[in-house]
Design goal:
Its cofactor is FAD. 27% of the residues lie in helices and 27% in strands. The chain is an alpha/beta fold and 399 residues long. It has a 5-stranded parallel beta sheet, with helices on one face.
Amino acid sequence: MQHRIVVLGAGYSGASAAGRLAKRLRREDVSVTLVNAEPDFVERVRLHQLATGHDLPSRPLAEMFEGTGVDLRVARVTAVDADRKAVTLTTADGPDELPYDTLVYALGSHWDDQGVPGAAEHAHELAGRAGALRLRERLAALEAGRPVVVVGAGLTGLEAVTEIAEARPDLDVALAARDGLGDWLSDKGRRHLGEVLDRLGVTVHEHTAVVAVEADLVLTADGTVLPSAATVWTTGFTVHPIARATTLEVTDTGRIVVDGTMRSVSHPDVYAVGDAAWAMGPGDKPLRMSCASGTPSAWQAADAIAARLTGGKHKDVPLRYFNQCVSLGRKDGLIQYVTADDRAVPRALAGRVAAVYKELVCKGAVWAVAHPTLGMPTRRRAVVEQPASTGTAPAEAAA
C-alpha cells in the first residue's frame, strides 16, 4: 500500500513541497496529492502589478505538475481531522474526504483587517488574485485627480503605493505609515525610499494609525480625515482559521507550532510550511510570513519527510534571511541586505540594478515551482517503513 502524502495549498510553499517530495520518493511507494482551491498558480508577489493593469501569465497547475507524479485536486479545504488523519474538502461535485498518512499544511494566509471598522467593507486587499482584480477595476474607473490611500508601509504597502503612483501619475496617491517610513531599513535604504516616493509624488503620513475606513475616506487616530476614492489595506496577514479548529498545537494567532524540520510538535505526521507555520529562526525569533522563508521551509519539510520515510539522515539546516527585496515601480527597487535574523545592515542596492535583481528573484521563484523535477538531481528512494495509517479511506470503509 502506498504511503499517502497530502499537501494542502499550492502557493509557493505548498507547490514547492509537493514537487520536491515527488522527486525524492518512488512513485510505487508514495502518492503525493496536492489540493488547491484554484486551478492556477498565483504569483502572489506580483499582485500589485496585476492591480495596476499588468497581465500576468496563466500558470495552470495541471500543466506545471504534468508528468511529475503529483496528483492535483482542485477543491477547497474545509476541515482537518488531525487525530483521524483525514481532510474534508468541498469539490465541484460536493463534499469529499481525503485520508492521509503524512500531511503538509500550506494553506498560507490572507489579509488582516485587524478589526478596524469599515476596513472589510470598504478597503481593497492584495493578498489574493480576486482582491487584486477588484482593485484593478476600481483604479481603472478613477478619474484624474482622485485620491488613493495605501494603509500600511511594510514591504507590500511600499510595492503597492509605488506601483500605483507610477502607473497612474494623474492620481493623488498617499501612504499612511503607523511608524516612521522605512524605519527598519539602513540609512541608505531609507534615503532611497524617500527619494523614490518624493519623485513619484506620493504624500507620506508617518506615525499615522488608521482607526476607521469609509467609502470615501480614512480616519486617523488623531482625528485627521484623509479623502480616499480607493483605500488599499496592507497592514499585515493572518492565517486561515482551519488549523485553530484542529487538535494541532497552534499559537494564539492560529499558526501551527513546528520544530526545526517543520514538523508539528503535537502531531508527528503533520508538517506545516510557509505562512501557516510558527517556526523559530536565528536569534530565537519566529520566521516572518514571507516568500523568503516560505520556500526554504518547504524544502526543509520535504527533505525531512523523505529522509524519515526512506531511513535516511536529514540535516536540520537553520533557516535564515539574506536580504529584503522591494520593487519600487517597474524601473526602481531596493535590496536591503540583512543579518540572519532579518536586521538591516548598512549595505543595500538601490535603483535600476535593484529592480533587475528583484525581477530575477520573482522569476526564479516561479521557475522553481513550475519545474519541480529540474534543478536538482533525481534521487527517488524506496520507502523502507510505512507508518500504519489510522485514517480510513471511503473505499476501504465501503468494502
